[in-house]
Each structure stands twice: as structure tokens, then as C-alpha cells.
Amino acid sequence: MIIQLAERLRELRESHHLTQKQLAQDMGITRASVNAWEMGISLPTVSKLVDLAQRFHISTDYLLGLASEKSVDIHNFTPQEQEILCGLMEYFQKVHHGTDTNKES
Question: How high is the pLDDT of residue 1?
């Protein structure tokens, strides 16, 4: 679990183009703490784990390696926004799985 968290945290931070220092400042902690998490030396507290999940819009299960796929929490969006997001997800799933009938041959 520690290795999974370390790898996923580094991947998420880098994909959001953040340095360890920037992430630490955003979370009100030291850069050394972020570095220790990414090296697997220590684990974030439960509250910091939740903060990370909210910051990166993922589940704590994904961050901990208990889920293999990312998920996005959309419960704070309006019903109209949720519908738009779900429509986008369906579109991207069709495109990536080759079942989009509107694709040019």
C-alpha cells in the first residue's frame, strides 16, 4: 500500500505540473512531508489523505491502491453539470473503444 500510494501521488502531482514545494504549500505542510510520502518513508494522515483525494479529484481508494481506476466525485455539481460530464464520459469511452459511429474511416 505504501509503494502504491507513493507512486500514485508522484504521478498525480507531476500530471498536474506541480512541484513538491507547490503541493506542500497548497496543503499547508512541508516539502519534506510530500517527499517522504512519495518515497514511501511515511504516510499522510487520514485528513491529509482526504485533502489529497479532493485536490486531485480522485478517490482515497485509488490513492491507496485499493481501486485500479480513477474516479471523479461529481456530487457537488448541479444536475445539469453532472449530465454534461456523464455525456462527455460516454463520448470518450466510445472514441477510445472504437465504437463511435461518427468517426471517419
Answer: 66
Residue whose C-alpha cell is 463511435:
100
3-state SS class at 33:
helix
- Distance of CA 5 to CAs 12, 23, 91, 96, 104, Å? 10, 15, 30, 27, 40
Amino acid type, 78? T
In the chain, what are the domain boundaries?
A: 2-64, 74-105
| DSSP SS3 for 8 | helix
Instruction: Record the pTM.
Output: 0.66
**Nine cell digits for residue 58:** 480522485
- Would you state the pLDDT for residue 45? 95
User: Could you tell me which CATH number the domain at 2-64 has?
Assistant: 1.10.260.40
